[in-house]
Amino acid sequence: MKYWFFALFLLVSISFSAQTINQFDDNGKRHGIWKKNFDGTKVLRYEGQFNHGKEIGTFNFYKNIRNKAVLTASKVFNESSTTANVTFYTSKGKVISEGKMDGKTYIGTWKYYHSNSDKLMTIEHYNNNGNLEGERLVYYDNGQMAEKQNYINGKLNGESFWYSVKNGVLKHFQYENGELHGISRYYTPRGDLKAEGRYKRDKKHGVWKYYENGKLINEKDFTPKSKYKIKKAP
């Protein structure tokens, strides 16, 4: 008799559990706890909770690695908006990057980390349209800055710098609306000037100077030649 009651309780529990997962509300929207496997497998693909069609709380997403579910991303959804705080992971559970998304669009501040440590590698900012906006910084794994750039609505604008691991400037460019435009300079790792000149709409323009050991060794004029010959006065 005890066995019969236990079997009945187990059957009811399993039936109830099955009914509370992957359900729809009266309007056909997902509601409650949802779990999905990769097609044709028993390997979990994602799990999370819906409130009448809207994701709420934490959703976890997995990769199928040798028939095992390995966490690859987690999203913590905001109940009053369509945004979520997102974290991406390596297959070993290390954080790769973290930031905010609106649907599939990156927004706000995003941080990326070096693969061999927890140290910050890149920090960048996105506007509400998913375009880079403002300063973008890249760091070596020793914490020294490697790149510094500025964006306006997804396009490079203003000064951009590239640094050596010892904090020496390697390149200094000027951008306008995503194109090289203005004075640019190249340096050796020791900090000596290698070349300098001007870009005009992504093309070298005017006289460029080239140096070796601090001395000018060559000049080259990139000024476009006129299509029309200048006529001499009779």
UniProtKB/TrEMBL annotation:
First and last residue of the signal peptide: 1-18
Annotated keywords: Signal
InterPro entries to which the protein is assigned, alphabetical: MORN_2 (IPR011652)
Pfam families named in the record: MORN_2 (PF07661)
Protein name: Toxin-antitoxin system YwqK family antitoxin
Organism, as annotated: Seonamhaeicola marinus
Organism ancestry: Bacteria, Pseudomonadati, Bacteroidota, Flavobacteriia, Flavobacteriales
